[in-house]
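Lab meeting prep.
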Amino acid sequence: MGSKSSPSDTINLKLILVSGKTAEFQFRPTTTASDVAKHVFENWPDDWGNEQRVDRYEVLRLIYQGRFLHGNVTLGALRLQQGKTTVMHLVPRENLPDSTDGDQKRKHKHDNNQDRTADHIQNAIPSHRSDTASPNSTTTGCCEGCIIL
């Protein structure tokens, strides 16, 4: 996020096209990604020209921190700072990729030793321990051999 200020109750989005052209828009925290796409489509900046303009707003997708945003996610849910500028990419894409690799996907780092696997099952701690972790950190899962990304 940048340091440019905007009114304290809005989120300033700096959107970047694949061509590198940028424009800034202001939204409320309750605005969804779909609402952002619709607003940008209806208020397409003149200096962007028609090179990447699409026929309908549903094709426009936002990318934030390397991930496509689904249409119903709000800017507030992303914990974007109000009054500050956040940079996102805006790309035309008909369909979103499948979300099979979610943030809470568990990856076991155990070796193939069957005895350790049996110990892991018998001594497992409930996985709710990770609920208190911050979304940007890796934490231990049900045991110290399991990592939640």
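Slide two material, second protein:
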Amino acid sequence: MFVVRRSAARLYPAGVQLAKMSGSQVGDLGSGAGKGGGGGGSIREAGGAFGKLEAAREEEYFYKKQREQLERLKNDQIHQAEFHHQQIKEHEEAIQRHKQFLDNLNK
């Protein structure tokens, strides 16, 4: 199979944005309300074990979401490469047909 290597900057088209948590939190995740302006909900504001559990679940959610998006992006790239290889094959066959046609005209 044909593998195309590209720089990381070109890996993500302009319309694709990956899910990620904002980095505006201060302190440990789930330890209470941060400086970002929003508290993140009553459980996270309370802090303690439930706040840390909720923060861990949220991190897990975004991690899984990002993995799904990357997998979908990878599959799309594979399908595009396969499509273009098929197009190349069909164009090469068309070129051969046209060359044969021209050879037959010259005879």
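Talking points for slide two:
The chain has a mean pLDDT of 78.
DSSP finds three helices and no strands in the chain.
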